From TrEMBL:
It comes from Gossypium raimondii (Peruvian cotton). It is found in: Secreted, Extracellular space, Extracellular matrix. Keywords: Extracellular matrix, Secreted, Signal. One of its GO terms (molecular function) is arylformamidase activity. Belongs to the Cyclase 1 superfamily. This is Cyclase family protein. Residues 1-22 form the signal peptide. InterPro entries: KFase/CYL, KFase_sf. Pfam families: Cyclase. GO terms for biological process: L-tryptophan catabolic process to kynurenine.
Length: 242
């Protein structure tokens, strides 16, 4: 490890940021939450619970350990497909396998939003996100409150109000929209906000991001959900490079 990398590592430890790899040129930030039994799930006080088990094990004389798992399509860090909120799109097959890789990877802006409000039209306007920006991750009070690290679901999380979502669609070029808790929409606006964002089938929603220690600014994002036919959402690995 050269001195530059030692310094970077020290900086990352001190700032609590999620850097997991550095070779002196590229820095990789893992913005995916670990899938554990303690992970919060929507509308539940119990968290994810037991989700993986061995079906063959070396201990029992098998050649290899092989497990199976069972997860909801909207577990942890995940994407939403158009079929999540539209029956028509479900029937037409607009599942996660149809999401655009062009949208899921590329330049991204991480923005800090005001901590005292949900994301309304007024908040969106105040952020001054320039035209031509196609991907934005919204870092909110959810990160400060460590909600993704808290097993009990919190319905008072920060998200988009419907007027904020409409403002985004009308006044920005954003096609990938990410947030740091289990839903892009404030709890009270779940249906209208998802409808507004998913209607055109051009916007990809990424939820449950881990933005701990991530500073606002420009990065490159890579989110790669499984190519799962019929799925209205899917856990995804997301990383930022800078
Ligand atoms: C291993 O064997 C024990 C005893 O037969 C059984 O209870 C257990 O379920 C087995 N586990 C696996 C992973 O095969
Ligand atoms: C294989 O499974 C056994 C339980 O049967 C476990 O103790 C062991 O750590 C596993 N090995 C690996 C490499 O995961
Ligand atoms: C955001 O909206 C939720 C209701 O969905 C509310 O409980 C919460 O207090 C609001 N957050 C802020 C910061 O105003």
């Amino acid at each position: 490890m050269n001195n530059h990398n030692k310094l970077l590592l020290l900086f990352c430890i001190l700032s609590g940021s999620a850097v997991v790899y550095s070779d002196g040129n590229a820095r990789i930030f893992d913005i995916t939450h670990k899938i554990t039994s303690q992970l919060p799930t929507f509308d539940s006080q119990k968290g994810l619970g037991h989700f993986i088990w061995l079906v063959s094990s070396i201990k029992n004389g098998s050649m290899a350990n092989i497990s199976e798992f069972k997860l909801g399509t909207h577990t942890g860090t995940h994407v939403d497909a158009p079929s999540h909120f539209f029956q028509k799109y479900y029937e037409e097959g607009f599942d996660v396998s149809t999401l655009s890789l062009q949208t899921l990877t590329g330049p991204v802006l991480v923005v800090d939003v005001p901590r005292n409000k949900n994301i309304t039209a007024e908040v969106m306007k105040s952020l001054n996100i320039p035209r031509g920006v196609h991907r934005v991750l919204f870092k909110t009070l959810n990160t400060d409150r460590r909600l993704m690290h808290t097993r009990e679901f919190a319905s008072d999380f920060t998200g988009f109000k419907k007027d904020g979502a409409q403002w985004l669609v009308d006044n920005t070029d954003i096609k990938l929209v990410g947030i740091d808790y289990l839903s892009i929409s404030a709890y009270v606006d779940a249906a209208p906000t998802h409808h507004i964002l998913l209607k055109s089938r051009e916007i990809v929603i990424v939820e449950g991001l881990n933005l701990d220690g991530i500073k606002p600014g420009k990065y490159t994002v890579h989110c790669l959900p499984l190519r799962m036919v019929g799925a209205d959402g899917c856990p995804t690995r997301c990383i930022l490079t800078a």
